[in-house]
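WARN retry 2 of 3 for item q-0093 after timeout on previous attempt; input resubmitted unchanged.
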Amino acid sequence: ALSRLILEAAIAFTPRSFLALLAHPAVRLGRSAGLIDAAARALELAVFRAIPLASLDDLERAFAAAREAAEDRHAHPAIRRVTERDRQAAEALARDVAATLGPLRALGANASLRDCLEAHRAAILAAVAPTRDPAARGFEQLIELIDEWSEAAAQSFPTELVEYSALFDDALATARDSPSGGGHPRLQILGLLEARLLSFDCLLLA
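OK item q-0093 returned
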């Protein structure tokens, strides 16, 4: 999910794709969970809800316009209540997201598949920082897939970012990760044969 959100945000580069990426629980961008959640809320309220934005190609212009809109006497009280400290944290977070996506967005039409993979991997690592070992957060399959592709990719194979996103999405559809240990003690996901002759307090039938 994170790898897809990163690609979507790099391609669309809109408030919606920014917020979708920031909502992923593994995204840290060098911050604690509490700090990134607070900054993301402030970003949505102080900037994305303050002014209409179809694209975030010019962040500084968007920040200036949002500040101007917040000073208008007709602005929503919730927007006007955003403190300067929260606004600065929101703007810094948006800049960090843009910097993380920058190498992917800089890829041209003649970029190689290997270039796309390297930029994608770098974006993933930056998004989950300060985690030093992505495998510790359950990214084993993803990192292995990128490594395998990087070894097999020809340097001269041109791939646009949109094409790479489609290729990577297809590859993810065939990848299967081993189930994590543990699970909730009161929740079981069973097939028809496994569930026969058993009784439960609550049953959800898909």
